[in-house]
Amino acid sequence: MSYVCPTGATRNPRTGHSINAPNNKLNYISGVLTPQDATIDTQANALLLSYWNSKFKAAVPNRWYPLPVCSDYAAKNQENIEIPSPYTGNKLVRLGKNGIQFILDVNPIESTELMKLNGKAYSFFGYDPNGNIEGICTDGTILKPRKCLSVNVYVKEPEKDVPQYTYIDIIFAETSLYNDYRRVFNPTTEAIVDWNPADSFDGVHAVVLSVVGNWSATGGVVRAVFENSGEPCTVLTAPDFYIAGKTISTAVPVVGGDGGSYTIASTGLVTLEEIDLQPTATIACTTLKLESTGGVPFTIPL
Questions:
Q1: Over 131-147, what HEC string results?
Q2: What residue ranges define each of the domains in the chain, with the CATH number in brackets?
Q3: What are phi and psi of 43, to 5 degrees?
Q4: Chain segment 125-174, per-residue pLDDT in tens
Q5: How far apart are CA 245 and CA 263, in angstroms?
Q6: Averages of pLDDT over each 10 residues, the chain, 302 residues
């Protein structure tokens, strides 16, 4: 089922319920942190996985960050503030802020990367176990994420024989806007799309480069491994590498290796050069989003 909540454009309530679709909206299991002013221009684009992937690969500060699926979840909602009145009923002064806590079972390297989210301003698209993605729409067309008042990532000392979990606490900035204008859509049930954010959303993977052996004016060997695991990065091609002012004609995996070492062929290399990867958005691989941790220098013997 894919359904859209009313935009709140009219205040006339319609309370018929006998032929309504069932409610399959559950708690968030993960989501996407975005810049605070992020928008999706149409629901058609919101249903395209390619659209989301283009945002995940965008250059900082416009990049969107998909979070891991949580191991556990807790609501962090505040109570509404009311003034009691014995004669006229309680007066609502302020709606309490809504919030969530994700509990993640991730390794220390991924946990450290998540902590780099601290200290920045975000908005948030959340999704639930049924694939429902939720945002806010005030005009019937443009979908916006929920603005965050705070995003805090931290760890606690683990209990005995229990993994050390990473916690993400999110407090949302507005309550009434969400109540009136929330919108839910589900790409898992659309005939033209059929994908689920829980197993389709993935962020950028860091790749560490290192120079192997001696280089010459016509090239040399560079090694590429994933920062998180140390596993070889085997999906790179010649256009993915970059040496300023030079053309890389081929990048061929070293014969007999594990696929993570590449023989680079170029021309006109001089005494001191640096090899790096192209920006994330232009790397040819479509199965993973890749980003270099930084270029590495190499020297040409005189």
A1: CCEEEECCCCCCEECEE
A2: 30-198 (no CATH), 204-299 (2.60.40)
A3: -70, -30
A4: 999 999 999 999 988 889 999 999 999 999 999 999 999 999 999 999 98
A5: 19
A6: 54 80 88 97 91 96 97 87 79 81 95 96 96 91 94 95 96 89 85 84 97 95 95 97 96 96 96 95 94 95 77
Taking residue 85's Cβ as centre, other Cβ atoms within 10 Å add up to 9
Q: How far is CA 85 from CA 78, 81, 89, 91, in A?
A: 21, 13, 5, 7
> 3-state DSSP call for residue 178?
helix
> Hey, what are 174's tokens?
């507005």
Half-sphere exposure of 292 (CA within 13 A, CB side): 20
* Nearest of 51, 61, 79 to residue 195 by alpha carbon: 51
209-237 confidence digits (pLDDT tens): 999 999 999 999 999 999 989 999 999 99
**Residue 122: closest CA among 163, 152, 85:** 152
CA dist., res. 176 & res. 92, Å (int): 12
